[in-house]
Write a structure and sequence with these properties.
GMP Synthetase, Chain A, domain 3; Rossmann fold; nine-stranded mixed sheet; 26 strands; five-stranded mixed sheet; alpha/beta; 12 helices; single chain; about 30% helix; 2 domains; globular
Amino acid sequence: MPFLDQLQRWANERPDDTAIVVGAQRLTWESLQKLAADLVPQSQQVTVLTEGNSVEFVARFAAAVAGERQCAVLDPSWPEHLRNEVRSRLGAPAPASGTALDDGPADSSFLIGMTSGTTSVPKAFTRSRQSWVRSFQASMAFFGLESTDKTMAPGPLASSLNLYALSECLYAGSEFHTLDSFDVGDVHAAITHDGITRLVLVPTMLRLLSERGLLGGVDASGVRSIICAGSKLDARTLEAARRWAPNATLFEYYGASELSFVSGLGLAPGQTPSPGGSGIGRPFPGVEVLIMDDDGGILPDGADGNICVRSGMVSNGYLWGDDGQALRRFGDWFTVGDQGYLTDGELHILGRRSDMIITSGKNVYPHEVELALASVPGVAAAVAAGMPDDLRGQRVVAGIVLSNGGLTATQVRTGLEEVLARDKRPIQYYILDELPLTDRGKVSRQLLLDWIGEGDRKARRLA
């Protein structure tokens, strides 16, 4: 079962309590249960949802996974031809058996997940109901989710981060909030008026909420946990979040759609990480982690390699698009190709191998360069990438957003001396007014290279 039996339970035990809030729309546990139950007979064996955030989306999603049904949630911002291609690969709609709003067999698939993509057809993978129950149990224990919490996940429900947060709250009987679309003022209003205690979001959203919240005097002292995914928090975002939400534990975690949760750490109020650190905590409950080479050999502490995971939360694999590399298996260990190393049980993330920069025969991961740069005084945020270079093969370049004016390239280089090895330091620096972001709010290293290559004023050489 993923969450439907639990939804029935909360509707029986707490029918009039608020379950879901989407902007100005609210549903109680009883009204959500009834709305979803009415939709079950209309749901196909495989339902494709491609719409924005709404209470109706929540009810349709619940109905679409009843019994042994499966649901694929597509990003509505994808081009129509891409959505149509996914639909065609999933096959013609077929009726499903059963009309009850209840969970199917634990080992049956209920979710068809998609890797992100806006131009090419994404890979599709499936998840069993039992894998999500195990994920719920692990994340509730790690993040300390309680039924009295009020969670705000202000991003699109088509994103796996937010869809999982919604489902986790349905399982836990915890009030879930989101918005029709992300708006800083609306999130601040929800924190102030609805008593939000928990935020689930990406670092760029946390930066905006924290900095504007401090400027506007928005009281976030009631927020007790902030859960960030997508990339490691930089020093400025951490500092702003600490001041804006002083009583919150800041959680960071590493995971992948195909693997679920892998490792994480929580920074209690007043606790600060080491500058430029790449550590992302210890394995989640029920998860084992090893570093392996490309042949499945186990590597010692401190050696870089494939981050390999063994847990009951791993997906079933791909329906299509499996090239043998995206999700590799060594016995009962799985990897998506992310690179890292272990030291005394703590996992350190270096990034995807495809992002790796090879300069003068040395392997450099942009992620570790970015973390080091973000620890330099005067640097608000940074993005690093590799540019073609006739002598070195590639040269490391970096774009930086300044927290104040007057910083020179020499000052940046000096700031890196204690936190980054010399052969990993950027050759050139560019001033950015803002980070190069995709439509989903993720940093794009390719966009930085495009700006530099085109001589765009968005990336100006730092002397």
